[in-house]
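User: I'm writing a tutorial on reading structure tokens. Could you give me a worked example: one chain, its sequence, then its tokens, then a sentence or two explaining what the tokens reveal?
Assistant: Sure. Here is the example chain.
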Amino acid sequence: MDGDYQSFGSEFVLWGLTQSQNLQVLLFVIFLILYLLIVLGNITIMILITTDHHLHSPMYFLLANLSFVDIWLSSVTTPKMISDFLREHKTISFAGCMSQVFFAHCIAAGEMVLLLVMAYDRYVAICKPLHYFTIMNLKRCTKLVLTSWTIGFVHAMSQLVAVLQLPLCGPLEIDSFFCDMPLVIKLSCTDSHDLDIYMNADCGVVVVTCFILLLISYTYILITVRQSSKAGASKALSTCTAHITVVMLLFLPCIFIYVWPLSITWLDKFLAVFYSVVTPLLNPAIYTLRNKEIKNALKRLKKYFKSQKVNT
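And here are its predicted structure tokens:
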């Protein structure tokens, strides 16, 4: 089918993760369970931080925002992927495809900046503890979170505007489980070399910059703590290692898909699943469930529900 991206009636065919019918049923069960865990886990953390006054601090305010972002990061592509496992013909409308392109970039970029904000929060707490509540007050934290969303929005708009101008040639088939930017570009009737370079550079500004700044900040934290006490260094090393693990799971797939593409279809699918499903699933466990204050808040919540049952 010939045409362009102005034809909003166009439909794209998604090939999904696999063509095996038996495997698709298994994947449906697996990803449905994972998605429910993502939603329930992150909502639980948001409720805990919002309702428990012991957790009303800048760090937990940022963690609640991370959980909120993680729900949306997974929801952009995962529900569609899950429903497509049960469909013989996997299609998505033009509007749906462009929405996935926009929100995938907007939310992923926003989360990267938010992780950088969280690293800055830890830097202030460890390296400048006496000034922590002066620097990281609620007003500044809110501004930093809004900044992360603004950067994500601007980045996504720059991607969307560029892809909307492409002439569209058929067949409109995408070898993935969602409308990924590099795969949509391949459907162009014209030479897309310049757009590929633009996409790599645009994504590189966000991804690589945040990634380098995150590594620098955590390195500086470890050096500072090591100079102060060995016990503190051991605890900080454990915390920073866990945080860096989440950073790697989000940033490395994005680097190899959008900044330095390897152009290996099965690997791109695997990496896309990692940053859209695995990272939102692991964030609650790594950032919060290992935290003593979160564990104590869970215990208080359980006691509250038990007392309510007794009273009724």
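What the tokens reveal: The chain has one domain: 2-311. Residues 1-8 have pLDDT under 50 and may be disordered.
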